Structure formats: C-alpha cells, structure tokens
C-alpha cells in the first residue's frame, strides 16, 4: 500500500557542514520510509535535475581562486534550486509524496549569507522568491566540529572540490550559522549531534520524523 499525506506532501531537508554524514542518513531514512509504504523522493542541492547537475559541476569545479565571485556563486546555487523546486519538489508534494533533500535554502542562508558575508536580508528575500514560499516541514542539522567533518570528507574523496577548499574558519562560521538558525526557528530546525554513531543518529532522526508524521 502506498501512503500519501495531505495534498501538502512532506518536505524534509538535511543540512550541516562538510562530512556531517547527511547522505548516509538520508539513504537510511528513505529505506525505512519506503518500507513503511511511503513514496519517497531523494534529491540533492545543488543538483537534482539535469540543469541543476550542470550547475553543480560549475559550482564544485570552477577554479577556487578568482574563478567565481561570491555573488555569482549565490545566483548559481539559487538557479539550481529554482529548477529543482519547480521541476521536482512542488509536483511531488502536490502528489502527497515525501521529499528528502540533501541541502536546501538554509544552506544559502548559512554558506552565502553567513560564511561568505553576503547581505543576509537580500539572501533571505532571494530564498523566499526561489522556494515559492514552500518552506521545509522539518530540517535536520547534523552538527559536527569543523576539524572532524573535514577529516571525514577528505577520507571519502581524496580530491577537494571548490567548496571543500576553504579555510577552517569558513566551516566554523558555517557550523555557527546552522546552530543560530536552529535557535531562530526551533520548531522547524532540529540539531542532531553528528559525532554519535550512524545508528544513534538515525534513531534520533527517526524520532523527529515520526513525530511530524503523526501530526500530518
Ligand atoms: P555537498 O553536496 O557535498 O553537500 O556539497 C555542496 C556544497 O555546496 C557544500 O560545500 C555546501 C555548498 N552549498 C552552498 O554553499 N550553498 C548552497 O545553497 C548549497 C545548496 C550548497
């Protein structure tokens, strides 16, 4: 039996700095939800559509020094999201499905608005325009100190992409940015300790998702 929610669907996003373990946790959650009969769509940002995947490549592999200005970076992340929201997310939500997204607009708030120090008010307005007013129902931030996260990320892939080649202080600002966001929006944004084991983290995620499913 396929379960679907109210016509609103359910949008769950995963956030955190590099190496926080989002991808693993998304796979685990998707498997569990599907086993329970839900229709689940897993996606990622930047990317998730043919246009978005091309933008992802530009963002990840342009030259890190002087290759891309912060303002261009902001617009490219936003362009990828605009495509994903309209091509995939809104139609799936309309069908009452569950979307699990590896990053969403909160990454722009934090990476471009906080760590890159672009005007936060402008970033907030741009985000609202891009997501067409559809905020996530639940956002799970996997919190990890920058050193541990970077070490994990570098273990996974030897080569660093443009976003993985910043100074340590950049990722520390990212971490603080996500924690501050959770303080501002405690109902939607939940911080989970990313240093715990995969099983412990997934149990915490399941508890948060379970309580939101009950409310739907
Ligand atoms: P990831 O897919 O490995 O998480 O890589 C995406 C990178 O892009 C990561 O460093 C976070 C960054 N990013 C932004 O800076 N702004 C954004 O809006 C998004 C979605 C990602």
**Which ligands appear in the coordinates?**
thymidine-5'-phosphate
CATH class: Alpha Beta
Question: Any idea what the CATH superfamily is called?
Answer: P-loop containing nucleotide triphosphate hydrolases
- Major sheet: order of its strands? 2-3-1-4-5
Unreliable spans are none
- The H/E string reads EHEHHEHHEHHEH
Large-scale geometry: globular
Major beta-sheet overview? 5 strands, parallel
Rg to the nearest angstrom? Answer: 17 Å
CATH topology: Rossmann fold
The number of distinct helices, counting runs of at least 4 residues, comes to 8
Give the overall average pLDDT. 93
Bin the strand percentage: 5-15%
Content-based structural category: alpha/beta
Number of spatially distinct domains: 1
User: What percent of the residues sit in helical stretches (DSSP H or I)?
Assistant: 55-70%
Terminal CA distance reads 18 Å
Number of strands: 5
CATH architecture: 3-Layer(aba) Sandwich
């Amino acid at each position: 039996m396929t379960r679907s929610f109210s016509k609103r669907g359910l949008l769950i996003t995963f956030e955190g700095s590099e190496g926080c373990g989002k991808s693993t946790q998304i796979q685990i959650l998707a498997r569990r939800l599907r086993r329970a009969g839900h229709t689940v769509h897993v996606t990622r940002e930047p990317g998730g559509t043919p246009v978005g995947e091309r933008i992802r490549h530009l963002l990840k592999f342009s030259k890190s020094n002087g290759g891309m200005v912060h303002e261009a970076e902001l617009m490219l992340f936003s362009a990828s999201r605009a495509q994903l929201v309209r091509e995939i997310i809104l139609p799936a939500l309309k069908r009452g499905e569950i979307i699990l997204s590896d990053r969403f607009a909160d990454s722009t708030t934090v990476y471009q608005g906080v760590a890159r120090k672009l005007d936060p008010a402008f970033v907030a307005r741009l985000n609202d325009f891009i997501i067409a007013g559809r905020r996530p129902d639940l956002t799970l931030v996997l919190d990890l100190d920058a050193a541990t996260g970077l070490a994990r990320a570098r273990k996974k892939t030897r080569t660093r992409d443009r976003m993985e080649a910043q100074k340590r202080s950049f990722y520390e600002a990212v971490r603080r940015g996500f924690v501050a966001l959770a303080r501002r929006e405690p109902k939607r944004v939940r911080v989970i300790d990313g240093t715990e084991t995969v099983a412990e983290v997934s149990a915490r995620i399941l508890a948060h998702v379970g309580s939101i499913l009950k409310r739907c």
